[in-house]
Amino acid sequence: MIEVKHLYKSFEDKDVLMDINAVFENGKTNLIIGQSGSGKTVLMKNLVGLLDPTQGEVLYDGRNFVAMSKREKVRLRREMGMIFQGAALFDSLSVLENVMFPLDMFSDMNYRERVKRAQDCLDRVNLIDAQQKYPGEISGGMQKRVAIARAIALNPQYLFCDEPNSGLDPKTSLVIDDLLSSITKEYNTTTIINTHDMNSVMGIGENIIFIYKGRKEWQGTKDNVMEATNKRLNDLVFASDLFKKVKEVEAEEMHKNISSH
């Protein structure tokens, strides 16, 4: 579990995050949502230590990440997996070598054990047959799955995903969502996903945190979204393509019903 307490982040005289309090739960997909510029990416960077908060605490199972020494932070980062927006694979390494990279850097396994672990992770994301290919030879969706395999190679307790569906078609996005959701439960990870994809919100949003202009405006589950009274959340959700399509279908059904009478 990750707890954020009274988190503030400023850049010079600009306040970007203000008094954020949130809990990200084990074994659940925790989604951070908000419009572009709301502060959700800055929040994630504070969580993983790419930025230091101006004020406040980030607690990993009770351990205050902000107050740790550099050595302690390095040790804790070994418990984290990261999936970047653009997959961030090494073009000059094969798919297998990309997944082995964190194992080469941080594990005590011998070469054979590292290969076996990487292959197991590729098998988990249904890409074992692509292990000798290079990133440029596979699709964007496959690259994201390689990134997931690499992120889980060290069996992390905490999994961070920055816009994992960015640039993907809806069908592939669903595959990625299902994969992240099942891995979260399988490994009992604390999974945190930055997203603006409302299909993801309604599909796998077990714990959703809505940020608006640097403040936490709402927190709940996908089942609570439709009943939420927060106008800004409603504006974000109901302006999405997902709900435009839902409304179009409902309008068509209503028109058919009227026409048939």
Secondary-structure blueprint of this entry?
Layout: E1 2-11, E2 14-24, E3 28-33, H1 40-48, E4 55-60, E5 63-64, H2 70-77, E6 80-83, H3 95-106, H4 111-124, H5 140-151, E7 158-162, H6 170-187, E8 190-195, H7 198-204, E9 207-212, E10 215-220, H8 222-225, H9 231-238, H10 241-259
Parallel strand pairs: 3-8, 3-9, 6-7, 7-8
Antiparallel strand pairs: 1-2, 1-4, 4-5, 9-10
Helix pairs in contact: 3-4, 3-5, 4-5, 5-6, 6-7
Protein traits:
globular; 43% helix; 261 residues; 6-stranded mixed beta sheet; alpha/beta; 4-stranded antiparallel beta sheet
Characterise the protein shown here:
The protein has helices at residues 40-48, 70-77, 95-106, 111-124, 140-151, 170-187, 198-204, 222-225, 231-238, 241-259; strands at residues 2-11, 14-24, 28-33, 55-60, 63-64, 80-83, 158-162, 190-195, 207-212, 215-220. The protein is an alpha/beta fold and 261 residues long. It has 10 helices and 10 strands. The longest helix has 19 residues, at 241-259. 43% of the residues lie in helices and 24% in strands. Strands 6-7-8-3-9-10 form a 6-stranded mixed β-sheet, sandwiched between helices.
Q: What amount of the residues lies in strands?
A: 15-25%
Estimate the mean pLDDT confidence: 88
Strand order of the largest sheet: 6-7-8-3-9-10
Order of helices and strands: EEEHEEHEHHHEHEHEEHHH
Overall SS class: alpha/beta
Question: Count of helical segments?
Answer: 10
- Spans of at least 5 consecutive residues with low confidence: none
Distance between the termini: 55 Å
In percent, how helical is the residue content?
Answer: 40-55%
Largest sheet: 6 strands, mixed
